[in-house]
Write a structure and sequence with these properties.
The chain is of the alpha/beta class and 329 residues long. It is built from 12 helices and 15 strands. GO terms for molecular function: acid-amino acid ligase activity; ATP binding.
């Protein structure tokens, strides 16, 4: 198919591909409401909660936008495990990882391992069979469920989908392993909303002490180098960010990446650090990415899984750390 999405897909090395079939797969971003311009044969809503508070005044504003998107789709598939979708936008059909018995597509007996995720797929009253996704994490299996539901709606035979699942690789900046530096594992991840951060941390925890993970070494701790993205998001979710990040063994906190926004008084990484500390988290503040790279060895140890997390320039950190090794030594 022709593909236009946000992330870099490993099997064609980009975020766009001109295909030769009659299907176009497009990622519609709700951030500015422009997704209502799509007229889709099949629309998919993976989950729903408030974000992009620079555009949406409240959750009802977001729900109205998503409802308009849904009306423009011939078939709307939604996540039955998402409370807001189940209540307000159930769509034509739903999928579920076992929590919603009324969902048409059900993925039962799910197993979340250090290097893979597994489930048994049901469509209506039929058991289609098992699938194995070579990626850990519940959120990855939920995304697979959405993709499989759409593929089955298009009439693609399930055995072909089973085979294709085994070849799936994560897009760029989605728990992307970068390198090992003196026994420290550097991973780049795009998570910048509290729920995304929580999902990535849960995935990382599956790998701690697990010698069957996708990583080349067995991690012992999870350290998050976090760069908040947008002042508006940081302000709205400050306490939730604090509680979520406090679950890491250590947090290296960077200044807010503005993404073009003007600063908001008292909304900064120092304020967030105080909230993390109040939530019993271990946190250190830094002035810049270069500052983190220079102090890298002071706050990390061999066996650490270090997540460079955020949607701004944080993906530069692994390279800066490697460049700073002679200085640290």
């Amino acid at each position: 198919p022709t593909v236009v999405i946000g992330g870099v897909v490993p099997w064609f090395g980009g975020n766009g591909r001109h295909g030769c079939g009659g299907v176009v797969v497009a990622e519609a971003d709700e951030s500015d409401g422009s997704l209502v311009k799509f007229r889709s044969q099949i629309g998919i809503i993976t989950n729903l909660e408030l974000d992009h508070t620079d555009h949406y005044t409240n959750i009802n504003h977001l729900l109205d936008t998503m409802a308009e998107f849904g009306r423009n789709c011939q078939t709307l598939l939604t996540n039955g495990d998402c409370p807001l979708l189940s209540q307000h936008l159930p769509g034509t059909r739903q999928w579920s990882l076992g929590g919603t018995s009324s969902a048409y597509y059900r993925f039962l007996d799910a197993r979340y391992l250090g290097r893979a995720s597994e489930a048994v797929v049901h469509a209506g009253s039929k058991c289609l069979g098992p699938v194995t996704l070579p990626l850990p994490g519940r959120h990855n299996l939920a995304n697979l469920a959405a993709a499989l539901a759409a593929a089955l709606e298009l009439g693609i035979p399930f055995p072909e989908l089973q085979k294709a699942c085994k070849a799936i690789r994560a897009p760029g900046r989605r728990f992307e392993f970068h390198s090992v530096v003196d026994g420290r594992l550097l991973v780049d991840d795009y998570a910048h909303h509290p729920t995304e951060v929580a999902a990535t941390l849960a995935m990382a925890r599956l790998m701690v002490g697990n010698d069957e993970s996708t990583l080349p070494l067995v991690p012992k701790r999870v350290v998050v180098a976090f760069q908040p993205h947008r002042y508006s998001r940081t302000k709205h979710f400050l306490q939730t960010f604090a509680l979520t990040l406090a679950a890491a063994d250590e947090v290296l906190l960077l200044p807010v990446y503005s993404a073009g926004e003007q600063p908001i008084p008292e909304v900064n990484h120092v304020t967030l650090a105080r909230a993390i500390a109040k939530a019993k988290g271990m946190v250190h503040c830094f002035d810049s990415l270069e500052h983190v790279a220079q102090e890298f060895y002071c706050h990390t140890r061999a066996g650490d899984l270090i997540l460079a997390m955020g949607a701004g320039s944080i993906n530069r950190l692994p390279g800066l750390v490697r460049s700073a090794i002679p200085m640290a030594a």
